[in-house]
Amino acid sequence: MENTAASTSRPRLAGLKVLVIDDSKTIRRTAETLLAREGCEVFTAVDGFDALSKIADHQPDIVFVDIMMPRLDGYQNLFADQAQQGLPLDPVIMLSSKDGLFDRARGRIVGSEHYLTKPFTREELLSAIESHVRR
Question: Which of 20, 38, 45, 91 could join 113 via S-S bond, C-beta 3.0 to 4.6 A?
Fold first, then answer.
């Protein structure tokens, strides 16, 4: 007899590799906890420089990147990674405490697929991922 409960209880984002880049330990831990519960394999980075090696090592399916970080901000990180890898990161979801039109537009220009305002809810986080997974 097959165990259908195991297949129906499988986390909806199982196996998806996600990188969360944010200088806030609280944001990294919150995102990591929420995403791990959904079955994601989550990697975190404290800034853009830390992220460059994590991207190369783990090749994430989705990247969340904070805009405002010391040393290498989210915009600079996208440019640096694209130059290092030779191709655009895809998809990238920008994280910011700012919700301005300029910030959203700038994120799109550098290649961001989506924009989440912090603090985000579990539903917003998962919705952002699922909109890209369905493509």
Answer: 91
**Cα–Cα distance, 49 to 71 (Å, whole number):** 8
Please report the pLDDT score of residue 76 as a whole number.
55
Burial class (CB in 10 A: 0-12, 13-18, 19+), 24: middle
Question: How buried is 57 (Cβ within 10 angstroms: 0-12 exposed, 13-18 middle, 19+ buried)?
Answer: exposed
Per the CB < 8 A criterion, the answer to whether 133 and 35 are in contact is: no
Angle 103-116-20 from CA coordinates, rounded to 5°? 105
Q: What is the pLDDT of residues 90-100, one digit of tens each?
A: 688 888 887 66
Distance separating alpha carbons of residues 64 and 55, to the nearest angstrom = 11
Question: Does pLDDT of 1 surpass 50?
Answer: no
